[in-house]
């Protein structure tokens, strides 16, 4: 009873734009991420300008992937979540023919993973898209991006159909509400009308690609991916309970459409009351209704609280929330709430009755090397141990959980702040915020801890 299911998938999760580097190598085009050298835009920025940044090299996974995959295998991974950089396949996004050099690169990645019996788990769009689509089409504001994304997906499905059997469409699709440039290629001052119109196009594209995956790779599974931002009522005041319901509906909307195939009533009401009018083609809702993802995946880092009193809210890293007096915070101000993961797993399983997959969870911290050159990251071990214990509790509750891929099994560049000092990895990378460092890899204390967790299928966790 102390182990996870026998077919449980253990591993880690990375994103192309945060690990690969080689931003202009082998005809790769510029992505929206390449235009954000300092992390996501502030709410008041109205334009972006390309300057060099740490992501240009990142941790050079592009060239060092054999070494890194070997380390993942040493930990016992049987699954690695990674993303394909859209701009390596279609540099400008609207080409008729793909870039063979980009396709060949991911062939090598998947072959290397296969050689180590690690299953690739691929995200099609992880916080990046061709910047040329923003310049020439206004990003997902244009319906044309539905066709461009479908072409890209079809290309990689056909190319890798014998190598990749687990897919995701968009990473944390609900993040577009908080970071529109990152999510849908709109400027950060875009209004809700524009953002939700772009989101509609993305949801139509999601449905088309889900159906396409089922056609091209019948034995594959394709899921969606949510930022699991569960909110508790700040008090038992019914007004706070309703406030929490509204906050949760903002992100559950995406899961509802991608799973149930229709716009929920609460969202239709919100559109009416906010005078938001979504332009649709006659068959858009038919397309959305025709596709349901095979499983729900999500990230979970922190919970939040919601209050009817706007004065209670404080500014967060990306998402504003009401502080919870019962929880401690990480060095970056994120509330640490392992039991919230069990609550979220039960909540999502009750709502959707589909398999779930925790595809991101981890602790960003400023790791320090001791006098022996070691990194004793017990705080990371404690964080992950406590979350995995609660994930196992959810399994005992009856939740169907496919797997767990920790965020950043190797140190990588932070998406929100473009820092290296916000480290998540079991593997230390000698690179720093100023770009200096040897890029040498080194195992942290948590490396052997996670190795033991995987080896025992969770039995070694401290309960």
Automatic annotation (TrEMBL):
The record's section on SUPFAM superfamilies has: (Trans)glycosidases
Q: What does the record give as the active site?
A: 360
- Kindly list the GO molecular function terms attached to this UniProt entry: beta-glucosidase activity
Q: Which Pfam families match?
A: Glyco_hydro_1
Record key words, sorted: Glycosidase, Hydrolase
InterPro entries the record matches: GH, GH_1_N_CS, Glyco_hydro_1, Glyco_hydro_1_AS
| Coiled-coil region(s) | none
Q: Its Gene Ontology biological processes? A: carbohydrate catabolic process
Q: Spell out the GO cellular component terms annotated for this protein, sorted alphabetically and separated by semicolons.
A: cytosol
Q: Which family does it belong to?
A: Belongs to the glycosyl hydrolase 1 family.
- Protein name according to UniProt: Family 1 glycosylhydrolase
Species this chain originates from: Vibrio gelatinilyticus
